[in-house]
Amino acid sequence: MRKLDLAFVRNQFPAFFEPPLEALSFFENAGGSYICAPVLDRLARFHHQRKVQPYGSFEASRLGGAEMDEARTRIAALLNVGGDELHFGPSTSQNTYVLAQAFGEMLGRGDAIVVTNQDHEANSGAWWRLARRGIEIREWQVDPQTGALDPVALAGLLDDGKVRLVCFPHCSNILGEINPVTDLCTMARESGAWSCVDGVSYAPHGFADVSALGADIYLFSSYKTYGPHLGVMVIRRALAGTLPAQGHDFNAGDITKRFTPAGPDHAQIAAATGMADYVDLLHERHFGEPGQPAVSAAERAWDVHGLMRGHEMRITAPLLDFLAARNDIRLLGPSDALVRAPTVSLLHRRPGAELAEALEPYGIMAGGGDFYAVRLLRALGIDPAHGVLRLSFTHYTSQADVERLMAALDAVL
């Protein structure tokens, strides 16, 4: 496996060279990542040169619309889906809410939806509200000791043929455990249900091949994948044509506008293309060789995915070993870096937010609280008000950052 050129990576993120940040180690990436330079460059250009109503005949308007279209085309290509299957919204929570309204119109009494208590509230709360319309909501519950989801338990919820939709996370924003998405989507499909996968906590560690996963709906937040503050939503074409439109009536015939009641910021959509630029930069740096055959955007994304995951696993393993050896904390999720994302949460006698604050003098930026995963914390016997300390990093985190973190934890715990 090729090794990530970390110096090259960090040079793509201006935040590392800003005086207020350059001396600190950032471990709250699950809340929002640093923005890469290609995104910032595109955002600045749009605001300086294209900040007019797009899709008009004059040049600034025409170019603005073209840049927005480019974002749809290139992000869709990274995910290996059609451009008309990609939708931008202001956030993943808002996108899920719009989806829930569509399913609420289409489904009725006698239909059921499966949700988990492992999810961030974005992929459960909106679905639970549909119970008010008579739709049955079934909860796929985690193991109270490990927090893991058992596929056998899902099979039991699907056995009567009433379930129309199964909602679950690619990985938990607390546990970091990566779920077997392809297998779970296959189970849902074979039972006659659609699948809705929350990829918010996985996407920062490599863009997924949504077609290979088999998900009917896939959601993530671009502000956690080095981009602007948007929610990105894939709805496969067959399902999108079935669901009732939620946008303006006169746009119902345009599949790209059916689930956009109010369009998000034009500049941010155009700037999202910078995420694809960044993937291409990493691919050229690590895989670009003279005479090498051209590969597709999805293949480039998957190559970069492997680079990111390889680096993350190498630097996560020492932290997991360090935490697993302590008897004064409870490490949540697997202790094996191979089966989890580098989102590491721990329970201590001191509240999570208090621990995060205590780490600050050591140059560690971390988060503490419930992270909108209240249902999961309660299932694990943890008071959400007490919360957990969450240490989340990504491929631009260095081994030196992790060593600094462990020294700080040793002092604070």
UniProtKB/TrEMBL annotation:
Span of the secretion signal?
Answer: none
Q: Where is the Aminotransferase class V domain?
A: 26-244, 308-405
* Key words of the record: Aminotransferase, Pyridoxal phosphate, Transferase
Organism, scientific name: Paroceanicella profunda
Under SUPFAM superfamilies, the record lists: PLP-dependent transferases
Q: What is this protein called?
A: Aminotransferase class V-fold PLP-dependent enzyme
The keyword Transferase belongs to this UniProt entry's keyword annotation: yes
Q: Which domain of life is it from?
A: Bacteria
| A GO molecular-function descriptor | transaminase activity
